[in-house]
Amino acid sequence: MKKIFLGLLIVIIVIGGIVWYVMSGANEFLKSQIEQKGSQYLGTTVSVSGVDLKFREGRLEIQELEIDNPEGFSDEDALSVDGLTFDLGNSLKEPYHVQELTINAPEMLYEVNADGTGNLIVLKNNLQSHLPENKPAEPSKEPAPLVKVDSVTVANTQLTIDFEKYEIQGIQLDKKKYEVTLPTFNAGPIGQPNGLPADEVGAAIVNNMLDNVIAEAKKKTRDLAKDKAKEKFEEEKDKLLEKADEKLKDLLKKDI
Prior knowledge:
Protein name: AsmA family protein
Structural class: alpha+beta
Keywords: Coiled coil
Radius of gyration: 27 Å
Strand content: 25-35%
Number of strands: 12
Helix content: 40-55%
Coiled coil: 226-254
Organism: Alteromonas aquimaris
Order of helices and strands: HEEEEEEHEEEEEEH
Shape: elongated
Largest sheet: 9 strands, mixed
Number of helices: 3
């Protein structure tokens, strides 16, 4: 009996070691794919500190995702997020089914250079040029598992709007750097019903995020410009009224 128990224990340890080896290898593979494909799609450096595929829990975790600003902008990150968690449910075969992805409190920078070009727009253009509908499909030399996502939620985006290098004609703003928290938005489903290659799913998620943030940043910028224009108009109106009042007083003093 003891021999049987020891034999089973050895088998369990060996299997556990194999599973650990496979999973750790998968983590490194996934990390390299995120960094390589992300950098290729966005035209700038994409990095993650680690990937943890928790097979038994049906969960994939990505730690500290960072996307560098494109060339021609500051050294700040265009996007950073502490972590991403993919709920894989009981999905064990392709297309792998992600029930929900929640991206909480990503930090994003919308920076405008002296030419009036936005960093996020550059990233979006780079991404668009690599999406399938804009590029002839090429046979992949690497494994590309199919994935479908039911829901993507992006909450509490911390957005910094920076146009210190850009002069808005005719409007002098008190400051040119603002921080705002964006409302929660949902993107998805993605890759339904038959799934898309994992890199294309990731690109679609980032593309939706960029669309939303660019729209919000432009809206905020327009609102700031409008408010300042109204303020300037009120100042000019007051000056004109003062001049008119002075002329009226001068006129009343005269003998007609």
